[in-house]
Predict the 3D structure of the following.
Amino acid sequence: MDNLIISNEHNGVLLICINRLDKKNALNNDMYIELCRLFTLANASDDIRCVLIQGDEKCFCAGNDLHDFIKCSESGDLAAFDLIKALASLEKPLVAAVAGPAVGIGTTLLLHCDMVYAANNAKFKLPFTQLGLCPEAGSSLLLPLRIGHNRAFELLVLGKMFTAENALDYGLINEICPTDELLATALNTAQNIAKLPLDSLLTSRKLMKAHTTTVLSQVMENEAEQFKRLVNTDECKTILASFFK
């Protein structure tokens, strides 16, 4: 992995750091596989009581590495869909610290988080239709539930970029932090979560998510089916190829 995903466990918190800063933390297939492994580890370990995912103070995640994405699309080996399932199946609380760009999966994964902190330099974008694709990670269900159909259409279909202030207004994040305080603030919350009585913590979280669990699984299957169809259309291939001319 060449340290593209860094992880360590301390005081009940599994800290996951996306560390591909020269590519704005764009995710490739190997990184998706490692993230899946870590989320599976979190479920299996009694010592892990909370998961924190972050980039650094300047960048969270610019979405898919498009070059790698095209290659894996052609082979049918898209580990991104495994990550989506791992996110939905995560049993432990998930906290995110977001700075700079959060694009595509960098935003939709936040819909599965229990707490999200954003730096005042955070920028969010869901450019699926501009790429000839469709929403993923259950976002076609979770985002309209959170902010309503009309606003979700604006973000998911028109792909409008939005700021940390917008995200706070929409209820997508908990708090805006100064950039230099972001990571420490998120870690402090994760550590406080990890100190809670475990059975009560996990039961409460499970009850809160129960009303969407069954339908979310079907929605993600529907999204994945359409995503895989669209990525193989001539229109999508032309759009993606244009990025490398």
